[in-house]
Amino acid sequence: MNIEILPTAQAARNYDFQGKTAVVIDVFRATSVITTALNAGASAVIPVATVDEAFSRADSLGRSEVLLCGERNADPIPGFDMGNSPQLYLPERVARKTIILTTTNGTLAIDAARSADKVLVASMLNYRHVAALLVTDAVADVVIVCSGTDGVPALEDSLCAAMLCATLQRVSSPNIVSDYATSVSLLAQLDGFPYRLFPLSRHYQTLVDKGYKDDVLFCANPDADFNLVPHLSPDGRLRP
Ligand code: MLT
């Protein structure tokens, strides 16, 4: 298995995904929300890049048929049903619902990876199951897309990518194909990896400062183990 790691959604925009499996990570908080919503029984999550696109998809599917969800600058979007706090995506709120999700970086990264043979979604909540699926399916070329924040690499995404690499290295002998991917995977050798390192992330601090501390604790929860792997279907919907 070859493993490449990309630092941002913007880097993914210029990458040739043909013949590859993309694994998109946005720990704080988009891919944690997607994993949590599907784990809570949402029928699908439709990731879209812009707020306008979200409203127009909601109009075409029927506004009462969907939940409009996401954030801009970490806060809920006016006129939307829910923000981007994963622990609010409870079964009583989202079961059997179609969620239209737009976020600042995570849904852009998913969009940028659309040309991959398969697009999977990973977070700290489900990375073990993503690793197991990649091994079971004997995937030859994996590209881990870290979403980053506003075009800059984000520590929390690198930590999750390193967890995924470390898990794959325990059960197979992957070939890490670039110096950037090697440097991310080496994070796994640091003292306190990974949980003591999350608070060093800039977006962690931004979310804490904005009153979303419960969210970062939820997204970096060492005991979480959601047994599902969201994947992007040809119809543009993420399903378990
Ligand atoms: C993003 O896509 O940038 C994030 O999910 C931002 C956030 O929710 O804080």
Describe the model.
It is a single chain. The chain has 240 residues and is an alpha/beta fold. The protein contains ten helices and ten strands. It is 36% helix and 17% strand. The strands form three sheets. A five-stranded parallel β-sheet has the order 6-2-7-1-8, sandwiched between helices. A three-stranded parallel β-sheet has the order 3-5-4, with helices on both faces. It has a two-stranded antiparallel ribbon with strand order 9-10. α6 (127-136) packs across α7 (155-171) and α9 runs antiparallel to α10. The longest helix has 17 residues, at 155-171. The protein is globular and about 50 Å long. The two termini are 23 Å apart. It binds D-malate. The site of D-malate has 13 residues, from loops.
Distance between the ends: 23 Å
The chain-level structural class is alpha/beta
Total number of beta strands: 10
Task: Report Rg.
Answer: 16 Å
Order of helices and strands: EHEHEHEHEHEHEHEHHHEE
Strand content: 15-25%
Q: Which molecules are bound in this entry?
A: D-malate
Low-confidence stretches: none
The spatial strand order of the largest sheet comes to 6-2-7-1-8
Helical coverage, percent range: 25-40%
Q: What coarse outline follows from CA principal-axis ratios?
A: globular
Number of helix segments? Answer: 10
Largest sheet: 5 strands, parallel
Structural topology:
Layout: E1 2-6, H1 9-13, E2 21-25, H2 30-39, E3 44-47, H3 51-61, E4 66-70, H4 91-94, E5 98-102, H5 106-112, E6 118-122, H6 127-136, E7 141-146, H7 155-171, E8 175-176, H8 179-185, H9 202-209, H10 213-219, E9 231-232, E10 238-239
Bound molecules: D-malate (MLT).
Residues 26, 28-30, 71, 74, 84, 103-106, 147, 207 line the site of D-malate.
